[in-house]
Amino acid sequence: MRRYSRITGTGSYLPPRRVTNADLATELAGRGVETSDEWIVARTGIQARHFAAPEVTSSDLGAEAARRALEAAGRAASDIDLIIVATSTPDMVFPSAACILQRKLGVAGCAAFDVQAVCSGFVYALTVADAMIQSGAANKALVIGAEVFSRLLDFTDRTTCVLFGDGAGAVVLEASDTPGILASDLHADGQHVGILCVPGTVSGGQVLGDPLLKMDGQAVFKLAVGVLEDAARATLAKAGKTDADIDWLIPHQANIRIMQSTAKKLKLPLEKLVVTVDQHGNTSAASIPLALDASVRSGKIQRGDTLMLEGVGGGFTWGAVLLDF
Ligand code: UT7
C-alpha cells in the first residue's frame, strides 16, 4: 500500500504588538520618512503587521505555533520524529532554529534542521517532510515557518519597511494510507539573487556588507506573477487535477495584487483566495502556515477541502503544494 503524508493539526502565533499603517506612518515621520495608510493599502493590501519584542526569536514564535499545532493534532512533542523550520531569520548563525525549538518543546533525539528558501520556505519544507514520510524516513513531522523579518528592515527605506511583519505557523504532518499531499513542484533561479536579499554576512567577528533587506519590488512583482501560475499548473498536472478541483488558494501573503492576479489566472473566484496579508503583512516563510491556520480555526477551511499552497521569494525561489486537507 502506498504511503502518503497528511496534515493532522495546524497552529500559529503572532507576537502581541500590532502595528497599523497609521502607527507605522507616524513612527516613520519621526525619521523624516513619508508614507501613508492610503499608499500601503492601495499598493499592497496591508493594513497592519505584528512586530516581535527585541528579545523574542524565531524559535520562540515557532515553538508557540508548534505547541498549538500539536494540540490540534492530539499529539505530544515526544510523538514527533522530524522537525523542519523554514526561516530566513534564525536565532543564530548556528545551530539551527529547529534545534533550539526542539529544546523549547522539551524533547530530544529526533531529526531537526532548517530550510532556507526565504518566502518559499514553507512549501520547500513541506515538500521535504512529505518526501521523508513517503520514504519511511519519518512518521510524524512538525513543519514550521517562523520569522522575525522586522530585524532585517531598513526603517529609512519606505519601499520595503512597510511590507513585512513577524509571526509563525506550523503543521503536524503524519504518515497516512490516504493523501494528504497530492503533488508538489519546487524551483529556484539563482540568477536573480540580487533582486531580493540581505547581503550582509558575519566574518572575523564583524558584520560584513549591509545586513538590511534590499528589494527591487517591481522585478519581484513581475517574476512572481508568472511563476506562481506556472507552479500551480505543474502541480495540478502532476496530481491529475484541474483548476476546478481547488477549493482554496493559499498563496504567499506578500501583495494582494499578486495574489488576486494568480487567482484570476487559475480562473478561481476571489472568494476562494485566502487573504491574511491585510492583517499580517508579509511574514515570509510564516505567511502560508499562518494563513492556513487562521482559515482552519475560523471554520473557512474544512476537512476534505483541496488546498493549493504557493510560495515565491528570494533566491529567486518558488513552488507549490496541492493537498487534501
Ligand atoms: O516576499 C517576497 C515577495 N515580495 C513581493 O512579492 C513584493 C513584490 N513587489 C511589490 O509588492 C510592489 O512592487 C511594491 C509594493 C514593493 C511597490 O509597489 P509598486 O506599485 O511597484 O510601487 P513603485 O515601486 O512603482 O513605487 C511607486 C511610487 C514611487 O514614487 P514615484 O517614483 O512614482 O514618485 C515610490 O517612491 O510609490 C512610492 N513609494 C511610496 N510612497 C509612499 C514607494 N513606497 C512607498 C511608501 N509610501 N511606503
Provide a brief overview of the structure.
By secondary structure, the protein is of the alpha+beta class.
- N-to-C span: 20 Å
Q: Give the rounded overall mean pLDDT.
A: 97
**Percent helix:** 25-40%
Reported for the largest beta sheet, the result is: 5 strands, mixed
Q: Give the topology string: H per helix, E per strand.
A: EEHHEHEHEHEHEEEEEEHEHHHEE
What's the domain count? 2
Query: What is the CATH architecture term of the largest domain?
Result: 3-Layer(aba) Sandwich
CATH-derived topology of the largest domain: Peroxisomal Thiolase, Chain A, domain 1
**What is the CATH first-level class name of the largest domain?**
Alpha Beta
Count of distinct strands:
15
What general outline do the C-alpha atoms trace? globular
Superfamily at the CATH H level of the largest domain? Thiolase/Chalcone synthase
Query: What's the arrangement of strands in the largest beta sheet?
Result: 1-7-6-4-5
Low-confidence stretches: none
Strand content: 25-35%
